[in-house]
Amino acid sequence: MTKLPRWADVVLVPLICLVIAFVFCGILIAAIGQSPLQAIWIMLEGSFGSTNGLGYTLFYATNFIFTGLAVSIAFQASLFNIGGEGQATLGGLGVTLACLMVPWPHWSLALLGSIVAGAAFGAAWGFLPAWLQAKRGSHIVITTMMFNFIAYALMNYVLVNMLRPLGSMDPASARFDKVVNLPKLGDILGLVGIPFSNKNPANISFLIAVALAVGVWALMWHTRLGYALRAFGKQEKAALYAGIDPVRITIYALLLSGGISGLMAVNAVQGAAHRLVLNSVEGAGFIGIAVALMGRNHPFGIVVASILFGFLYEGGSQLAMGTTIPREVITVLQALVILFTGALPYMVQKPLERLFALRGGK
Amino acid sequence: MAAQALGGRQATAAPYAIELRGISKSFGPVQANRDINIAVPRGTIHGIIGENGAGKSTLMSILYGFYKADAGEIIINGQPTAIPDSQSAIRAGIGMVFQHFKLVQNFTVLENVILGAEDGALLQSSLVRARAELEALSKEYDLDVHPDAVIEDLSVGHQQRVEILKALYRQAEILILDEPTGVLTPEEADHLFRILAGLKEKGRTIILITHKLREIMETTDNVSVMRRGTMVDTVRTAETSPEALAELMVGRKVLLEVEKRPATPGREVLKVENLTVRTDGVDRLKGVSFAIRAGEILGIAGVAGNGQSQLLEALGGIAAASGRITMNGVELPLKGHKANGQSRRAAGIAHVPEDRQTLGLIMDFTAWENVGFGYHNAPEYQQNWLFMDNAALKADTVKKMATFDVRPPIPTLAAKSFSGGNQQKIVVAREIERNPDLLLVGQPTRGVDIGAIEFIHKQIVALRDAGKAVLLVSVELDEIMSLSDRILVMFDGKIMGERNPDVTNERELGLLMAGMTESKGA
After folding, report:
1. Interface of B with A (CB under 8 A)
2. Nearest residue of A to residue B387, measured between CA atoms
3. Helices (H), B228-340
4. Chain A residues near residue B388 by CB distance under 8 angstroms
């Protein structure tokens, strides 16, 4: 329906939405007696001003790329998977078991093992709601949400009763062996002569996430499965005409989606925490929804949107440290960004369309 | 050119009911209406014909206040009138009956009629007033609609009359009907035209938008022809012919009759035995049996909703069914996951579905993606085991678009951006070019313009002449009669009988379509 040129639709609209969100937040910061300009400077400086800050930004972004891609794959098939949180939690369990149970000789093998385990656990957590929807008609929005809570409860049980080291008071697993620690982004970039701090948690997972984005793009637009997923998502009934099995597509979509969510744990658990804690996902599963919306369900858009949210996260903690602006303000900013980029782009689209129509009409 | 004296009882004396002067409207670079002039004398039935995309709907939307014209003037009963929205159109005495009815299915006729025209917050007074008026109107114009009937229980023909009642209740002096007979039986269409004649007698003005030349010839006083956004000509109906109108519409000579040689049926391709489809606990298709031979077109006639859709869907592997179908001697699965569009295609069945916009095409997909739709697993569209060969698919699309004259021939354009006729050409090209043993075709020319109809009919006949079997389902009797080699008539999920198109007639088929078995003659 949109009559905007493609570049305006893809770049200009989200950008304007973003600016509006920042303006609103600026007003809020000014209202509590702080300088909005100084605040934004601290955020930018903190998250992009040094390679260490950038590392943190990219670390957060990595989580969001995984969960954003996961949401987008299901979304292409018109399935709203809001269970990324639970799937990533289970992925954490898979990665932890892989790291703790197997005496890996080298990190690269451990990485392969944890990728397989994380994806398998996440996919399994996505499979159940998919199966319930495809076979039983239980709505996936409800079931995936419920499965988030089940995942928390399960994790609580497993950590306290099974994975907690003897004598520890902390509901967390034992630390992983140093062998399985993943190479830091700084170390990798150092190999090619780019100086980059390695005091931050950014690790090889970032590169895996970016490669995965390319993979998802190829999957969606260059394979039969992607074709079938998109066709099913656009017109479910027509998919039937073409011989695309709705049960299978629903299950495939959620397996992929859950699996990719689960991969988040490779970054957060194996790459950074080196042990499994109770809340290892920290809301990244939900941020994934916002990221997918803002990235227009396109893998490359999702990478860009993830970096933006990484900046909001890292910039937010810098703000909390460097000023008296309460941490909550940054939550408000994130909420505004989600609101304007995810829910309100039409508000911007319409006037912009009129503007372009005016210009084109002359 | 429209200002010339037109046929009509008051043509010369009274002002025109509607006059449009120099109406232009463009959407971005597309000029949908260009300097349209038209004058409709009061108390006449005025036909507007034109191919899809000729600008008829845009013009009527301007008249009904959905769009604002870029330039031009609307004059109603001699008064220049601004119509910024549909409320003003109603106030100006214009009523519109849309192709797709705007009725609340679980409301009664009475409730639908007053919806949006209530007297106040409380309904009682409106209902009482409307009931009296409705009964009067219904009697006056032989509408035969009961005020307390619930819409979903009414036939399509009756629902349409409710739409007419809605307009009349709002004091419409000028009634616009957009493709009103698309969903009606011949019987119901006749009734509609009797109603329109009655309205005309009472001095109301009717604008009839249709692509059916026969209706124009039979019912209108004057007819305006549109082509590519311009008004080509306005003529008295009595002084023109269907051939002349078709030529005006398309801009070249058009063959209205399908040219075809007698069929030479060969071996049996498809055998259907006791096919039954049950949905929501109701048998939609009740034990249908027939066979199709190579080199023949079997036409299925019937009013929409009598099981034809289920027949196509069962044969096409979309709906689960029971019974037995045998294709080239091999029994095909009717239920379970093996019964699907892919396995049917593998068995040599191609399917042009009835509803191209919800089944045959993914409207948001590009033309080239749609050319692969249903054939996305075909080996020629694969690069290797993993990747599809999008380039090959695009190249194939370019070729098919050229062969089938799809316009514009841009493979990267979304399906929804093509006109109805060109969308249908994409579907037909995709299915026919596979050279299937059996082609299932549902409503091949619904919403398709005359030029494309001629083309699609030719393609279907050519496939038959190449020794393939064709199952044609259509609610257009003309189409069934001119294309089919044998005709089966369906009613209420059953086959009422078989007729030979050379010896039967519309009346006889019409009776069978209405479920009356004892027909005379033939």
Report:
1. 28-29, 316-318, 337, 340-345, 351, 353, 358-365, 369, 372-374, 376-377, 382, 386-388, 390
2. A223
3. 242-250, 308-315
4. 222-224, 227
Selecting from B344, B376, B386 the residue whose C-beta is nearest the C-beta of A227 gives: B376
Domains and CATH numbers, chain B: 1-93+173-183+204-254 (3.40.50.300), 102-172 (no CATH), 268-513 (3.40.50.300)
Going from the C-alpha of B522 to that of each of B153, B478, B508, the distances in angstroms are 34, 17, 8
Six-digit token string for A168: 């520890």
- CA torsion sign for A244, A247, A248, A251 is positive
B126 neighbors B114 (Cβ within 8 angstroms): yes
Counting beta carbons within 10 angstroms of the beta carbon of residue A360, is it exposed (0 to 12), middle (13 to 18) or buried (19 or more)? Answer: exposed
How far apart (Å, rounded) are the C-alpha atoms in residues B394 and B380? 12
Q: How many Å lie between the alpha carbon of A5 and the closest alpha carbon of chain B?
A: 12
CA distance B252 to B248: 7
What digits encode the pLDDT tens for the residues B253-286? 776 677 888 889 999 999 999 999 998 888 999 9
Rounded to two decimals, what is the model's pTM? 0.80
With beta carbons under 8 A apart, name residues in chain B contacting A243.
317, 340-345, 374
CA nearest B342 in A: which residue? Answer: A243
Beta-carbon neighbour count of residue B404 at 10 Å? 23
Taking only the tens place, the pLDDT of each residue in B209-224 is 987 888 899 999 999 9
Can you give the residue ranges of every domain in chain A? 66-282
Q: What is the ipTM of this complex?
A: 0.86
